């Protein structure tokens, strides 16, 4: 995969020292880390809102900052779109004028993304004549995304796009972000301190701590290399699995999803799949590792519908909790207490059943 962004920069802000080197490809990368550790600073440096003390930044092959060459392209000339936490729309302009704001800075020849196309992708056509204050939080976020897209950017930067909205709207914003990425193939850097939100979008994660890159890679690799184990119980981890719609039972509302994993067919029941999802469609679902129980045998006469058989591949001990990686045809992370691990004599190589309710399976993306 070609790197779209090459980044190396230092910045001193009082006691806070920022020093990062990283490169990003054309997919979605989640920037994850605790509050105050430099996630926003990274985006601000890439966008030109802040100037590094030293370093080099290139976007899409174009050098936008090079301390040695005294080059520092002003933010408005960098080919990127920035979506802030709270949207930051111009209150005195209509939605339509807000959308056109970014586009207007571009010569016509460089406008690769069309206004009507963006309006229909983000479903904001009915809002065009309104003022931002007359729009809901989720609508304002979509307008901000539209404004960023209409700059025909080579890169989209999203700083906590979910934090100012409630849970239901978060889901919607996630869906629009995936839609934008699929349609326009613009690389995205998405900052969040909520790991599940990031994982619903991507498994490519840059972990930031103390102004530095703590780790960078695929989510499961980071977990298995112990770089991303929860520091406290209930924090963070999530299974995100791609499956296909196999059957929808209209009477019970239960959807059966399947995945062809090697020679095995794995079935997962879920009751959150929206009506009208066509058979055969690919869906991404999430299951929290803490919602999964381990049993040594299948359990008959129980309401729990999902009982996936698999083999324990790894046991990772952290803070009295155990994260167990079970291969059920796909890798499944399961959180168990260390006392249960002892009681069941769980070991690598054992055959087990992973039990979880259909209600624990949440759909996070329908392709
Ligand atoms: N304008 C500023 N002047 C001086 N220091 C600042 C300024 N803005 C932020 N900082 C400091 O820089 C550090 C990194 O801040 P940054 O906003 O990048 O963190 P973050 O990881 O994005 O946090 P959050 O998740 O809370 O947004 C913090 O210690 C913060 O106090």
From TrEMBL:
Annotated ranges, domain Mop: 301-365
This protein's UniProt keywords: ATP-binding, Cell inner membrane, Cell membrane, Membrane, Molybdenum, Nucleotide-binding, Transport
A GO CC term attached to the entry: membrane
InterPro entries registered for this protein in UniProt: AAA+_ATPase, ABC_SmlMolc_Importer, ABC_transporter-like_ATP-bd, ABC_transporter-like_CS, Mo/tungstate-bd_C_term_dom, ModC_ABC_ATP-bd, Mop_domain, P-loop_NTPase
Any one GO MF annotation of this record: ATP binding
Residues annotated as domain ABC transporter: 1-235
Pfam families recorded: ABC_tran, TOBE
Keyword hit for Chloroplast: no
Superkingdom classification of source: Bacteria
Keyword Membrane: yes
Protein name: Molybdenum import ATP-binding protein ModC
């Amino acid at each position: 995969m070609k790197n779209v962004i090459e980044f190396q920069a230092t910045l001193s802000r009082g006691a806070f020292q920022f020093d990062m080197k990283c490169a990003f490809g054309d997919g979605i990368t989640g920037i994850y880390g605790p509050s105050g550790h430099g996630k926003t600073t990274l985006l601000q440096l890439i966008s030109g809102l802040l100037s590094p003390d030293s370093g080099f930044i290139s976007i899409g092959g174009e050098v936008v900052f090079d301390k040695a060459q005294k080059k520092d392209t002003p933010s408005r000339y960098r080919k990127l779109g920035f979506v802030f936490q709270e949207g930051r729309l111009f209150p005195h302009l209509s939605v339509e004028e807000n959308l056109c704001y970014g586009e207007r800075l571009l010569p016509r020849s460089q406008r690769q993304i069309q206004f009507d196309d963006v309006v229909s992708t983000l479903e904001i056509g009915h809002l065009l004549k309104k003022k931002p204050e007359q729009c809901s939080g989720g609508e304002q976020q979509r307008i901000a995304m539209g404004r960023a897209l209409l700059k025909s950017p080579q890169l989209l930067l999203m700083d906590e796009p979910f934090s100012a909205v409630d849970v239901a709207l978060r889901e919607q914003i996630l869906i629009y972000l995936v839609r934008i990425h699929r349609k326009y193939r613009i690389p995205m850097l998405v900052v969040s301190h909520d790991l599940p939100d990031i994982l619903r979008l991507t498994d490519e994660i840059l972990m930031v701590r103390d102004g530095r890159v703590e780790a960078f890679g695929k989510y499961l690799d980071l977990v298995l290399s112990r770089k991303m184990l929860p520091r406290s119980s209930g924090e963070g981890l999530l299974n995100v699995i791609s499956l296909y719609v196999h059957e929808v039972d209209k009477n019970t509302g239960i959807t059966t999803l399947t995945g062809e994993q090697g020679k095995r067919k794995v079935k997962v029941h879920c009751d959150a799949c929206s009506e009208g999802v066509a058979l055969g469609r690919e869906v991404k679902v999430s299951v929290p590792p803490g919602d999964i129980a381990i049993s040594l045998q299948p359990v008959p006469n129980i309401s729990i519908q999902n009982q996936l058989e698999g083999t324990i591949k790894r046991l990772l001990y952290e803070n009295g909790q155990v994260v167990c990686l079970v291969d059920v045809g796909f890798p499944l992370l399961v959180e168990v207490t260390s006392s249960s691990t002892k009681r069941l004599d769980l070991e690598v190589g054992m055959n087990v059943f992973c039990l979880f309710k259909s209600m624990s399976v949440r759909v996070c993306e329908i392709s």
